[in-house]
Specification:
By secondary structure, the protein is mainly alpha-helical. Helices cover 72% and strands 0% of the residues. It has one domain (6-52).
Length: 64
Amino acid sequence: MTAPTLHNLDHALAKLAVIIETHGPQYWPIFERLEAERDELATRQQRLSAARRRVSPDRANNPG
C-alpha cells in the first residue's frame, strides 16, 4: 500500500465534499479524519523542510 500524498488527500476531500453536499452530513466524520491526516502530513513535510533549511539553505530545495 502506498502512503497518501497531499494531492491524493486533497482530491479525496474534494470528492467527499460533494458527497456530503449530495447525501448529507453523516459523512462528516470521514471528512474530518481525512482532513486531519492531510494537515498532519503537511505539517510533517514543513517540519522536514525547516530542518533542512536550518542546516544548509541550499539543501532545502535539493535534499539529494
